Structures are given as C-alpha cells and as structure tokens.
Amino acid sequence: MNRLFNFISNKKVTIIVAIIIAAVLYVSITHMDASEADATNASTKYYTCISVESGDSLWDIAQKYMTDEYTSTQDYIDEVVSINNLNNDSSIVAGTNLVIPYYEVTDLN
Questions:
Q1: 76: which of 39, 40, 66, 98 fits an S-S bond (Cβ 3.0–4.6 Å)?
Q2: Does any domain span residue 65?
Q3: CA 38 to CA 12: how far, in whole Å?
C-alpha cells in the first residue's frame, strides 16, 4: 500500500513539474516573439519643413502630421512651437516656413 501511495505522489509531482516547465517555456517563447517584433520595427524621428498656407493653424498642422508617438495634440503643438521659436499665442502666418517633427516606422530586416 505504501508503494502505491509513493508511486501516485511521485506521479503527481512529475505532472506538476511538467506543467510548470511548459508554462515557463510558453511565457518565454511568447515574450521573445514580442521582443523580436519590436526589434524588427523601430520608429525614427525626422524633421521636415512645410510652408504655412492661408487658414492653417497649428492645430490643423498637428492633425495632419502628428503620429502615434505623441501622447496628445497639445504635446505635438508645444514641440512645434519650441522648435520654431514661436510665441506662446501659437499664431502663424501664411507663407511662413515651419520645421515639424514626425516619426516613421523603419523595418530593420
């Protein structure tokens, strides 16, 4: 009877260890796939020069050129204002050239 109890206990321990190993392998593999995806695509920040057209506002420019890397439209506008040494009133004039930032995803493969 003792032998049967030991056999069943050993079998349970073996199954539990196998489940733990399988779980660790699963987590490792799925985490590695996510890391590889991040490593193959990287966002690179670029700058371009645009000419302000009649009726344009910083908000309009932000809506056109802002990418997902910015947390808010105001953050993007603040950066454009800073880069171009604009006043805090955020007024721009048609014909003015502005340097604006944008991000582009680069495939590293």
A1: 66
A2: yes
A3: 39
Tokens 């344009």 belong to 56
Do 109 and 103 touch, CB atoms closer than 8 A? no
What lies within 8 Å, CB to CB, of 26 at 6+ separation is none
CB 105 within 8 A of CB 42: yes
Span 52-62, pLDDT tens digits: 999 999 999 99
Name every residue whose Cβ is closer than 8 Å to that of residue 103 and which is 6 or more positions away in sequence: 43, 44, 45, 46, 67, 68, 69
Position 14 in a domain: no
pTM: 0.59
CATH code for position 93: 3.10.350.10
